[in-house]
Amino acid sequence: MPADSVEDALVEIMVTEALKTSEIEGELLSAEDIRSSIRLNLGLPFAKHAVSDRYAECMALLMLSIRATYAEPLTKEMLFAWHRMIIQDNDFERAGMVGCWRTNKEAMQIVSGPIGRERVYFEAPPVERLDHEMDIFINWFNETQAKEGTAHDDALNDKGLSGPVRAAITHLYFESIHPFIDGNGRIGRALVEKALSQELRAPLLFSVSNIIQKRRKEYYNMLHLNSSESFDITQWICFFVELIFEAQRSSHEMIQFVLKKTHFWQTHAYHVTKRQEKALQRMFTEGPDGFEGGMSAQKYMNITGCSKATATRDLTDLLEKGSLRLLQGLGSATRYAIALER
Fold it and tell me: For residue 109, what is the enclosing H or E element?
């Protein structure tokens, strides 16, 4: 891939991971703010000079931190730093619950069901045991990392764990301790990325959270089932390794999309106006799936600030020149997609 295409692919994978790991927890962030923050911090072009969403900026910093430190041993300090990045809650900060293990004395329980017939899926260890439990977890994580000198293509590390199996156990193990007052899911998924990157000896090139979000209900059911009812976690490992495989396949589609995007601009850049280019760039930021429902004249007007007549004329021109393809409709219901090579 050309160098700029490699940069685009890496940034888009980080943006997807930041968006989806937050979306799993009910947080909806701006993809453009995350993208701009990542590009600014990496010194890459095409970044806004101001990011309006502090939370989006912090999630971008978390993605960059995971990638910059993937080979380093896991420490409490690293986990605390990640927690400070993702918890932007003034109440938690005033209560001294950011960047430290939880201190609330009441039981940390995951409960489901109607009032009066609740079911406790899972209860985390009490605060008095957190230091001890996390010391054991951190030692286990570091001891199971494949050591320098181990052949890159070895099926197992020196503790007998393949990378995907180690990542699956890491996530379940961490979530079972639930050491933080909030943010355990996001940090648990960050640890998955760290574990897999250590296996690959390079930062991860796919987003596991993207697939988890698509299978969110199944993910939570499996997580709760295997956290509480059995010490046999084979079912969880099989499920999680399947997620990792799906994530790799999705990443392959993203990389193909970036290559097609590069080829598109090589072919079409010479005949589009600045206004058309702005709209096309906005369409590309939606990734391989594109705009939901496609590009319409109204969306074009909102993006470029032009009149309806100009929007219709510009879109028709892009269609005639092969930059767009027709999706559906006539008149105001007409929708378009970028004409990428098949």
Answer: strand 109-112
